[in-house]
Design brief:
With about 350 residues, the protein is of the alpha/beta class. It has 2 domains: about 170 residues, Medium-chain alcohol dehydrogenases, catalytic domain (Quinone Oxidoreductase, Chain A, domain 1, Alpha-Beta Complex), CATH 3.90.180.10; about 150 residues, Alpha-Beta Complex (Quinone Oxidoreductase, Chain A, domain 1). Helix content is about 30%, strand content about 20%. It has 12 helices and 15 strands. The strands form 3 sheets. Strands 3, 5, 6, 7, 8 and 15 form a 6-stranded antiparallel sheet that branches. Strands 11-10-9-12-13-14 form a 6-stranded parallel sheet, sandwiched between helices. Helix 7 links the parallel strand 12 and strand 13. Helix 3 crosses helix 4 and helix 3 crosses helix 10. It starts with a strand and ends with a helix. It binds NADP nicotinamide-adenine-dinucleotide phosphate (NAP). NADP nicotinamide-adenine-dinucleotide phosphate binds next to helix 4. This is Enoyl reductase (ER) domain-containing protein.
Length: about 350
Protein backbone atom coordinates (compact mmCIF):
# COMPACT_ATOMS: atom_id res chain seq x y z
CA UNK A 1 0.00 0.00 0.00
CA UNK A 2 0.95 3.68 -0.15
CA UNK A 3 0.73 5.86 2.93
CA UNK A 4 1.91 9.03 4.63
CA UNK A 5 4.00 7.52 7.38
CA UNK A 6 5.34 9.84 10.07
CA UNK A 7 8.76 8.73 11.38
CA UNK A 8 9.52 11.97 13.25
CA UNK A 9 7.67 15.23 13.94
CA UNK A 10 7.70 17.70 11.06
CA UNK A 11 7.56 21.51 10.93
CA UNK A 12 4.51 21.56 8.69
CA UNK A 13 2.40 19.55 6.22
CA UNK A 14 4.65 20.24 3.22
CA UNK A 15 7.35 18.09 4.89
CA UNK A 16 5.12 15.00 4.67
CA UNK A 17 5.96 12.29 2.13
CA UNK A 18 4.15 9.31 0.64
CA UNK A 19 5.92 5.95 0.97
CA UNK A 20 5.26 2.33 -0.03
CA UNK A 21 4.59 -0.08 2.81
CA UNK A 22 3.32 -3.66 3.10
CA UNK A 23 -0.49 -3.76 3.19
CA UNK A 24 -1.35 -4.49 6.84
CA UNK A 25 -2.89 -7.82 7.84
CA UNK A 26 -6.07 -7.37 9.93
CA UNK A 27 -6.30 -8.79 13.46
CA UNK A 28 -9.21 -11.19 14.06
CA UNK A 29 -11.52 -8.33 15.14
CA UNK A 30 -10.61 -5.87 12.36
CA UNK A 31 -11.85 -4.95 8.91
CA UNK A 32 -9.43 -4.13 6.08
CA UNK A 33 -10.71 -1.15 4.10
CA UNK A 34 -9.58 0.23 0.75
CA UNK A 35 -9.56 4.00 1.34
CA UNK A 36 -11.21 6.01 -1.47
CA UNK A 37 -11.32 9.40 0.30
CA UNK A 38 -9.73 10.81 3.46
CA UNK A 39 -11.10 13.76 5.46
CA UNK A 40 -8.66 16.29 6.94
CA UNK A 41 -8.86 17.73 10.43
CA UNK A 42 -7.00 20.51 12.22
CA UNK A 43 -5.84 17.94 14.77
CA UNK A 44 -4.00 16.08 11.95
CA UNK A 45 -1.86 19.21 11.60
CA UNK A 46 -1.18 19.31 15.34
CA UNK A 47 -0.39 15.59 15.43
CA UNK A 48 2.28 15.66 12.69
CA UNK A 49 3.99 18.44 14.68
CA UNK A 50 3.78 16.56 17.99
CA UNK A 51 1.31 19.07 19.49
CA UNK A 52 -1.82 16.92 19.81
CA UNK A 53 -3.17 15.23 22.95
CA UNK A 54 -3.01 11.82 21.20
CA UNK A 55 0.46 11.01 19.79
CA UNK A 56 0.96 7.38 18.67
CA UNK A 57 4.44 5.82 19.05
CA UNK A 58 6.61 6.20 15.88
CA UNK A 59 6.22 5.27 13.13
CA UNK A 60 2.54 5.99 12.50
CA UNK A 61 0.31 6.90 9.58
CA UNK A 62 -1.36 10.33 9.59
CA UNK A 63 -5.05 11.12 9.12
CA UNK A 64 -8.16 9.90 10.90
CA UNK A 65 -11.31 10.15 8.75
CA UNK A 66 -11.96 8.03 5.69
CA UNK A 67 -14.50 6.40 3.41
CA UNK A 68 -13.91 3.31 1.31
CA UNK A 69 -14.83 -0.31 0.57
CA UNK A 70 -14.48 -3.38 2.76
CA UNK A 71 -11.76 -5.76 1.47
CA UNK A 72 -11.73 -8.21 4.42
CA UNK A 73 -14.07 -8.83 7.38
CA UNK A 74 -13.20 -9.90 10.95
CA UNK A 75 -12.41 -13.59 11.25
CA UNK A 76 -13.61 -13.57 14.88
CA UNK A 77 -17.25 -13.11 13.74
CA UNK A 78 -19.53 -15.29 11.63
CA UNK A 79 -20.91 -13.70 8.44
CA UNK A 80 -24.26 -13.09 10.19
CA UNK A 81 -22.57 -11.44 13.20
CA UNK A 82 -20.48 -8.97 11.19
CA UNK A 83 -22.25 -5.69 10.40
CA UNK A 84 -20.47 -5.28 7.04
CA UNK A 85 -19.52 -7.67 4.25
CA UNK A 86 -16.80 -7.58 1.58
CA UNK A 87 -17.54 -4.84 -0.95
CA UNK A 88 -19.69 -2.73 1.42
CA UNK A 89 -19.15 1.05 1.30
CA UNK A 90 -18.25 2.37 4.76
CA UNK A 91 -16.97 5.53 6.40
CA UNK A 92 -15.36 6.05 9.77
CA UNK A 93 -12.50 7.38 11.83
CA UNK A 94 -9.41 5.75 13.28
CA UNK A 95 -5.67 6.49 13.09
CA UNK A 96 -4.08 6.09 9.64
CA UNK A 97 -6.50 7.46 7.01
CA UNK A 98 -3.78 8.98 4.78
CA UNK A 99 -3.19 5.63 3.12
CA UNK A 100 -4.61 3.41 0.41
CA UNK A 101 -5.59 0.82 3.06
CA UNK A 102 -6.62 1.02 6.73
CA UNK A 103 -7.54 -1.42 9.49
CA UNK A 104 -10.62 -0.58 11.57
CA UNK A 105 -12.68 -2.23 14.33
CA UNK A 106 -16.42 -2.38 13.69
CA UNK A 107 -17.45 0.34 16.17
CA UNK A 108 -15.47 2.92 14.15
CA UNK A 109 -17.42 2.23 10.94
CA UNK A 110 -20.81 3.26 9.53
CA UNK A 111 -22.50 2.56 6.17
CA UNK A 112 -22.11 5.22 3.46
CA UNK A 113 -25.63 6.65 2.91
CA UNK A 114 -27.31 5.68 -0.38
CA UNK A 115 -26.40 8.05 -3.17
CA UNK A 116 -23.47 9.59 -1.26
CA UNK A 117 -19.99 9.81 -2.76
CA UNK A 118 -16.95 8.59 -0.83
CA UNK A 119 -15.76 12.20 -0.89
CA UNK A 120 -18.81 13.47 1.01
CA UNK A 121 -18.94 10.45 3.34
CA UNK A 122 -15.29 10.92 4.37
CA UNK A 123 -16.23 14.22 6.05
CA UNK A 124 -19.32 13.01 7.88
CA UNK A 125 -18.09 11.04 10.90
CA UNK A 126 -16.96 13.91 13.14
CA UNK A 127 -18.86 16.95 11.87
CA UNK A 128 -22.41 15.59 11.69
CA UNK A 129 -22.32 13.80 15.03
CA UNK A 130 -20.74 16.73 16.89
CA UNK A 131 -23.33 19.17 15.61
CA UNK A 132 -26.32 16.83 16.04
CA UNK A 133 -25.12 15.81 19.52
CA UNK A 134 -24.67 19.46 20.47
CA UNK A 135 -27.82 20.99 19.04
CA UNK A 136 -30.32 18.17 19.53
CA UNK A 137 -29.02 16.17 22.47
CA UNK A 138 -27.39 18.94 24.54
CA UNK A 139 -29.21 22.16 23.58
CA UNK A 140 -32.61 20.60 22.81
CA UNK A 141 -33.20 22.69 19.67
CA UNK A 142 -36.91 23.16 18.94
CA UNK A 143 -38.97 24.48 16.00
CA UNK A 144 -39.13 28.27 16.27
CA UNK A 145 -35.78 28.61 18.07
CA UNK A 146 -33.24 31.09 16.74
CA UNK A 147 -29.73 29.60 16.53
CA UNK A 148 -26.51 31.58 16.12
CA UNK A 149 -23.84 29.40 14.43
CA UNK A 150 -20.29 30.78 14.63
CA UNK A 151 -17.77 29.87 11.90
CA UNK A 152 -20.81 28.60 10.06
CA UNK A 153 -18.88 27.72 6.87
CA UNK A 154 -16.41 25.50 8.76
CA UNK A 155 -16.79 21.72 9.05
CA UNK A 156 -18.89 21.48 12.19
CA UNK A 157 -20.48 24.87 11.40
CA UNK A 158 -22.00 23.78 8.08
CA UNK A 159 -23.29 20.62 9.71
CA UNK A 160 -24.84 22.73 12.50
CA UNK A 161 -26.55 25.07 10.01
CA UNK A 162 -28.23 22.14 8.27
CA UNK A 163 -29.28 20.38 11.47
CA UNK A 164 -30.72 23.55 13.06
CA UNK A 165 -32.70 24.28 9.88
CA UNK A 166 -33.90 20.67 9.65
CA UNK A 167 -35.22 20.97 13.24
CA UNK A 168 -37.25 24.05 12.33
CA UNK A 169 -34.98 26.78 13.69
CA UNK A 170 -34.03 30.12 12.17
CA UNK A 171 -30.26 30.34 11.68
CA UNK A 172 -27.97 33.35 11.92
CA UNK A 173 -24.54 32.38 10.57
CA UNK A 174 -21.25 34.16 11.20
CA UNK A 175 -18.14 33.83 9.00
CA UNK A 176 -15.06 35.83 8.11
CA UNK A 177 -15.37 36.22 4.33
CA UNK A 178 -18.14 36.88 1.81
CA UNK A 179 -17.45 33.51 0.11
CA UNK A 180 -17.92 31.71 3.42
CA UNK A 181 -21.12 33.64 4.19
CA UNK A 182 -22.40 32.75 0.72
CA UNK A 183 -21.70 29.06 1.47
CA UNK A 184 -23.51 29.28 4.84
CA UNK A 185 -26.56 30.77 3.10
CA UNK A 186 -26.39 28.07 0.40
CA UNK A 187 -26.59 25.39 3.11
CA UNK A 188 -29.67 27.04 4.61
CA UNK A 189 -28.66 29.92 6.91
CA UNK A 190 -31.36 32.60 6.99
CA UNK A 191 -28.94 35.43 7.76
CA UNK A 192 -25.15 35.67 7.48
CA UNK A 193 -23.04 38.18 9.38
CA UNK A 194 -19.37 39.22 9.17
CA UNK A 195 -18.06 38.62 12.71
CA UNK A 196 -14.80 40.43 11.97
CA UNK A 197 -16.90 43.57 12.40
CA UNK A 198 -16.85 44.20 16.17
CA UNK A 199 -20.47 45.37 16.09
CA UNK A 200 -21.75 41.94 15.02
CA UNK A 201 -23.64 41.33 18.35
CA UNK A 202 -25.63 44.51 17.60
CA UNK A 203 -26.52 43.08 14.19
CA UNK A 204 -27.78 39.88 15.82
CA UNK A 205 -29.80 41.87 18.37
CA UNK A 206 -31.28 44.05 15.62
CA UNK A 207 -32.38 41.02 13.62
CA UNK A 208 -34.02 39.48 16.70
CA UNK A 209 -35.67 42.77 17.73
CA UNK A 210 -37.09 43.12 14.24
CA UNK A 211 -38.27 39.57 13.56
CA UNK A 212 -38.97 37.98 16.96
CA UNK A 213 -41.62 38.43 19.63
CA UNK A 214 -41.61 38.42 23.46
CA UNK A 215 -38.33 37.45 25.15
CA UNK A 216 -36.90 36.52 21.76
CA UNK A 217 -36.58 40.19 20.89
CA UNK A 218 -33.44 40.29 23.07
CA UNK A 219 -31.49 37.69 21.09
CA UNK A 220 -31.04 34.07 20.06
CA UNK A 221 -32.01 30.89 21.95
CA UNK A 222 -28.93 28.84 21.09
CA UNK A 223 -25.32 29.77 20.35
CA UNK A 224 -23.23 27.08 18.61
CA UNK A 225 -19.60 28.05 19.22
CA UNK A 226 -16.62 26.16 17.72
CA UNK A 227 -14.41 29.31 17.87
CA UNK A 228 -14.21 30.54 21.49
CA UNK A 229 -16.78 33.38 21.44
CA UNK A 230 -19.10 32.53 24.34
CA UNK A 231 -18.34 35.67 26.33
CA UNK A 232 -19.12 38.14 23.55
CA UNK A 233 -22.11 36.06 22.42
CA UNK A 234 -23.75 36.65 25.84
CA UNK A 235 -24.52 40.15 24.53
CA UNK A 236 -27.12 38.84 22.11
CA UNK A 237 -28.96 35.95 23.78
CA UNK A 238 -32.55 35.58 24.94
CA UNK A 239 -33.86 34.47 28.36
CA UNK A 240 -33.12 30.73 28.91
CA UNK A 241 -30.54 30.64 26.09
CA UNK A 242 -28.18 27.66 25.77
CA UNK A 243 -24.59 28.38 24.68
CA UNK A 244 -22.74 25.34 23.31
CA UNK A 245 -18.99 25.15 23.91
CA UNK A 246 -17.81 23.15 20.87
CA UNK A 247 -14.23 24.28 20.34
CA UNK A 248 -11.59 26.98 20.33
CA UNK A 249 -10.64 27.38 16.66
CA UNK A 250 -9.36 30.89 17.39
CA UNK A 251 -6.68 29.30 19.57
CA UNK A 252 -7.60 30.68 23.00
CA UNK A 253 -9.54 28.93 25.77
CA UNK A 254 -12.05 31.46 27.11
CA UNK A 255 -12.64 32.45 30.72
CA UNK A 256 -16.04 33.69 31.80
CA UNK A 257 -17.47 35.91 34.57
CA UNK A 258 -20.22 33.67 35.94
CA UNK A 259 -22.39 36.55 37.17
CA UNK A 260 -23.35 37.06 33.52
CA UNK A 261 -24.61 33.48 33.32
CA UNK A 262 -26.83 34.16 36.35
CA UNK A 263 -28.03 37.59 35.21
CA UNK A 264 -28.99 36.37 31.75
CA UNK A 265 -30.55 33.11 33.08
CA UNK A 266 -28.63 31.04 30.54
CA UNK A 267 -26.93 27.63 30.35
CA UNK A 268 -23.36 27.13 29.18
CA UNK A 269 -23.26 23.59 27.81
CA UNK A 270 -20.15 21.63 26.86
CA UNK A 271 -19.90 18.79 24.36
CA UNK A 272 -17.05 16.28 24.01
CA UNK A 273 -18.41 14.08 21.25
CA UNK A 274 -15.45 11.70 21.07
CA UNK A 275 -16.08 10.59 24.68
CA UNK A 276 -19.69 9.51 24.08
CA UNK A 277 -18.43 6.17 22.72
CA UNK A 278 -16.87 5.63 26.15
CA UNK A 279 -19.39 7.12 28.59
CA UNK A 280 -22.76 7.12 26.79
CA UNK A 281 -22.77 4.57 23.96
CA UNK A 282 -26.56 4.54 23.63
CA UNK A 283 -26.54 8.24 22.68
CA UNK A 284 -24.08 7.53 19.83
CA UNK A 285 -26.67 5.23 18.23
CA UNK A 286 -29.52 7.72 18.80
CA UNK A 287 -27.51 10.56 17.28
CA UNK A 288 -26.56 8.55 14.17
CA UNK A 289 -30.15 7.39 13.72
CA UNK A 290 -31.20 11.05 13.80
CA UNK A 291 -28.53 11.99 11.24
CA UNK A 292 -29.36 9.12 8.87
CA UNK A 293 -33.06 10.11 9.08
CA UNK A 294 -32.19 13.69 8.05
CA UNK A 295 -29.99 12.35 5.21
CA UNK A 296 -32.84 10.11 3.98
CA UNK A 297 -35.20 13.12 4.03
CA UNK A 298 -32.71 15.14 1.95
CA UNK A 299 -32.24 17.60 4.85
CA UNK A 300 -28.54 16.90 5.40
CA UNK A 301 -26.11 17.04 2.49
CA UNK A 302 -22.38 16.44 2.08
CA UNK A 303 -20.16 19.40 2.87
CA UNK A 304 -16.94 18.57 0.99
CA UNK A 305 -14.99 21.68 -0.06
CA UNK A 306 -15.21 22.05 -3.85
CA UNK A 307 -13.23 25.20 -4.69
CA UNK A 308 -10.02 23.17 -5.11
CA UNK A 309 -9.53 19.46 -5.91
CA UNK A 310 -7.18 17.29 -3.87
CA UNK A 311 -6.56 14.05 -5.75
CA UNK A 312 -4.12 11.31 -4.70
CA UNK A 313 -2.17 10.92 -1.46
CA UNK A 314 0.48 13.31 -2.82
CA UNK A 315 -2.07 16.12 -2.42
CA UNK A 316 -2.47 15.59 1.37
CA UNK A 317 0.27 18.16 2.22
CA UNK A 318 -1.41 20.86 0.11
CA UNK A 319 -4.85 19.95 1.49
CA UNK A 320 -3.57 20.31 5.07
CA UNK A 321 -1.82 23.57 4.17
CA UNK A 322 -5.09 24.98 2.78
CA UNK A 323 -7.01 23.83 5.88
CA UNK A 324 -4.46 25.41 8.23
CA UNK A 325 -4.49 28.65 6.22
CA UNK A 326 -8.21 29.22 6.88
CA UNK A 327 -8.69 29.32 3.09
CA UNK A 328 -11.30 26.60 2.88
CA UNK A 329 -14.95 25.97 3.78
CA UNK A 330 -16.81 22.82 4.79
CA UNK A 331 -14.70 19.70 4.93
CA UNK A 332 -11.40 19.42 3.07
CA UNK A 333 -11.31 15.91 1.61
CA UNK A 334 -8.55 14.16 -0.35
CA UNK A 335 -9.70 11.73 -3.03
CA UNK A 336 -7.15 8.96 -2.46
CA UNK A 337 -8.71 7.18 -5.45
CA UNK A 338 -10.35 9.38 -8.08
CA UNK A 339 -13.60 7.42 -8.45
CA UNK A 340 -14.85 9.58 -11.33
CA UNK A 341 -11.76 8.76 -13.42
CA UNK A 342 -11.91 5.09 -12.33
CA UNK A 343 -15.56 4.73 -13.40
CA UNK A 344 -14.78 6.08 -16.89
CA UNK A 345 -11.94 3.57 -17.50
N1 LIG B 1 -16.43 19.37 21.00
C1 LIG B 1 -16.23 18.41 20.14
O1 LIG B 1 -16.55 17.24 20.40
C2 LIG B 1 -15.63 18.75 18.81
C3 LIG B 1 -15.76 17.88 17.72
C4 LIG B 1 -15.25 18.29 16.48
C5 LIG B 1 -14.57 19.51 16.38
N2 LIG B 1 -14.42 20.30 17.48
C6 LIG B 1 -13.71 21.58 17.42
O2 LIG B 1 -14.47 22.50 16.68
C7 LIG B 1 -13.61 23.44 16.08
C8 LIG B 1 -13.95 23.58 14.62
O3 LIG B 1 -13.75 22.34 13.97
P1 LIG B 1 -13.99 22.23 12.39
O4 LIG B 1 -13.73 20.83 12.02
O5 LIG B 1 -15.28 22.85 12.02
O6 LIG B 1 -12.79 23.14 11.85
P2 LIG B 1 -12.69 23.98 10.50
O7 LIG B 1 -13.45 23.32 9.41
O8 LIG B 1 -11.23 24.24 10.30
O9 LIG B 1 -13.43 25.33 10.83
C9 LIG B 1 -12.98 26.21 11.80
C10 LIG B 1 -13.49 27.60 11.52
O10 LIG B 1 -13.12 28.42 12.59
C11 LIG B 1 -13.03 29.75 12.13
N3 LIG B 1 -11.91 30.40 12.79
C12 LIG B 1 -12.01 31.46 13.62
N4 LIG B 1 -10.82 31.85 14.06
C13 LIG B 1 -9.92 31.05 13.46
C14 LIG B 1 -8.50 30.98 13.50
N5 LIG B 1 -7.77 31.83 14.25
N6 LIG B 1 -7.90 30.03 12.77
C15 LIG B 1 -8.60 29.16 12.03
N7 LIG B 1 -9.96 29.18 11.95
C16 LIG B 1 -10.60 30.12 12.67
C17 LIG B 1 -12.87 29.69 10.61
O11 LIG B 1 -13.99 30.31 10.03
P3 LIG B 1 -13.96 31.87 9.62
O12 LIG B 1 -12.80 32.03 8.66
O13 LIG B 1 -15.28 32.09 9.03
O14 LIG B 1 -13.72 32.60 10.90
C18 LIG B 1 -12.89 28.21 10.27
O15 LIG B 1 -13.71 27.95 9.15
C19 LIG B 1 -12.18 22.94 16.32
O16 LIG B 1 -11.62 23.69 17.38
C20 LIG B 1 -12.37 21.50 16.71
O17 LIG B 1 -11.34 21.04 17.56
C21 LIG B 1 -14.94 19.94 18.68
Amino acid sequence: MRAIQVNEYVKGPLDLQVTSLPTPAPAASEYLIEVHSAGTNFFDLLQIQGKYQHQPPFPWIGGAEFAGTVLAVPTSKSASQARFKIGDRVFGATQGAYATHILAPEHTLLPVPNGWSFEDAAGLFITASTSYGGLVHRANVRPGDWVLVHAAAGGVGLAAVQIAKAKGATVIATASTERKRQIARKFGADYAIDYRNKRWPEEVKNLCAKHRTGNGKAGVDIVYDPVGMIDVSLKCVAWNARLLVIGFAAGKVEKLALNRVLLKNVSIVGLHWGQYARFEKETVDTVWKGIFDLVAQGKFKGIAFKDENFVGLDSVPRALQALGGRETWGKVVVKVIDDEVKSKL
